[in-house]
Amino acid sequence: MPSRPSCARRLLGAVLHRRSLAPLSFVAASLLFQVAAPFAAPARAQVYAVFLKDPKSAKRYAGHVVEVNGQPAVVGEAKAGIKFENGRINYQGDKGTNELWVVDTADPAAVPYQLEGSAYVPSAKKGGTVTLTGSQIANIQYLLPKHSLFGLAREHAIRRAAATEAATRRDAFKAGSAEWSAAHVRYLGELRQLHTWLDSTCFPEAAKKLAAEIDKQGKQVAKEARAQRLSAALASITLVPTPLRLVELGKTLAPNSTFKVQESTHLRFTYDDALGDEQVKALLVLAEQMIDGFRGEFVDPWLGEEFLDTIPDTRFMEFWFGPEEKNAHERFLTDWYGVSWGNHKEQRIAAMSGRYRRNDVTEYLDYWKIADNKDFDAIVAHQLGHVLANLHFNQGRKGDLPHWIEEGVGYWLALSYLGKNGVTCKEFKQQEYAKSGGNQVERSVLLGETEQFTQMALDHGRPVDALLLLSLSQMEDGDLAKSWSFFEYVGSVEEKRGQLWLRALCDLYAEGNAGMASYRAKSEALFDVKGEDVFKLLDGRWKARAEQVQRSGAPPKKK
């Protein structure tokens, strides 16, 4: 299976909460951005990366080591000696001992402890802990600050259950038939999502095993055009010459920076080379895999005269990652991209990001200032989701589309492939929406990310008929979670009818008929509902699906 370089496992430092107000000429989904702060959860039950003074000695801890930013690190949760205090991670120095519950990089389902109330109890199998003296340690940083090994195991169970469900759907058709092939592509999509999640968390060995299985399964549809489409898109990734005018502009505005350009079938990245060529290549691989996965899930199975693929096989989106300095930021966007700042110019220039629709081949421009600790994987996933929502459901219209659909797709890409959503309109208040646990250990990080968002949607998301009418500024955290969860239900369970319904909602929105009466009439017709409230029916079906997802996060097996 083609895979992207493993540069996704990056450490997270402190991130300031900054909001970006988008100009009126920008698409509405860019009203607010926020990068979630990594230190919101308590210090226990979080996954650390421990770097050793002698990197070669990491070989002694094989099976518990993950490469992070090109360096090996022992990965696990703090058992003893390591604490987060006064805004920093402290550990026992010199001959003092520091103990970790360590990850099994080949088996996400294995957890080295059991939970008995508030106590961590070692599992029966040996090898679940590693002890390091302070003299061995060069540095300790958070790797996955909102997760635990327990929660990751539960997340893995949910993802495995989704793949099994997709295989069951496929096997309902005759092997080799057109229906079977379409369903098999969706199954492959689930496996690829799982592979990306394994690779971007802390399970590289499990990712390698799954890659072999994906290659095997992919051979069954390798000759089909849609299978070759992804291979061609990945092969298209290339570093191209930087336009001379941009080079000259860079010499004037940012003389200490060098700007580069990489392209693929669907995307262009123009960036300050502080970002790094390999990292940008990895982002392009991720983006092309997500575009193909989205099409395999929501487009390919239903293609026909009444359902066309409106995602072009041309370069439609560009990411700009440029310098932080205010004047340079403004001038690059004005002089190179032709951005019109409109009202509230100073606020918009000061913002860390924004989106702009251009009359150009790469029509969708998403721009960010480069700064330490940005989660570039999450940026690409969420923002690409907004564009795919417009291209597919809104069929590329210049106008806006229902905000819950746009947010739902952004969250779907980020959570499906990365198991996180680092770019959001509001901070995800993880602790507040976790299941209650009394005096038990921090329940928020003991749930998988899918469970957390699903529980948030179940507990705090508004009913569907209310959700359909909300603007982005009116949405609370529970509504954003419900947007994702309800979109996932419509796409996975309602299949072609669900796709036609989402397009129909966008049609009504574009026509200026985005009211409850028109939504209700169209929904009753498409779902063939008479004599009952169609939205209560859909809400009930969604709730059953969401509760099924929660049940599939089975308790992890003992290591």
What key attributes describe this structure?
559 residues; alpha+beta; 6-stranded antiparallel sheet; 6-stranded mixed sheet; globular
Provide a compact summary of the structure.
The protein has 559 residues and is of the alpha+beta class. Helices cover 42% and strands 16% of the residues. It is globular.
Query: Which structural category do the helix and sheet elements fall into?
Result: alpha+beta
Count up the domains. Answer: 2
Beginning-to-end CA distance, first to last residue? 29 Å
Percent of sequence in beta strands: 15-25%
- The number of strands is 20
Helix fraction, binned, reads 40-55%
Structural overview:
Helix 2 (178-200) runs antiparallel to helix 3 (204-218), helix 5 runs antiparallel to helix 7 and helix 12 (449-460) runs antiparallel to helix 17. This protein folds into two domains: 28-38 and 151-553, no CATH class; 47-144, no CATH class. It is built from 17 helices and 20 strands. Helix content is 42%, strand content 16%. With 559 residues, it is an alpha+beta fold. The radius of gyration is 23 Å and the shape is globular. The strands form six sheets. Strands 2, 3, 4, 7, 11 and 12 form a six-stranded antiparallel beta sheet that branches. A six-stranded mixed beta sheet has the order 13-14-15-16-18-17, sandwiched between helices. The chain has a two-stranded antiparallel ribbon with strand order 1-19.
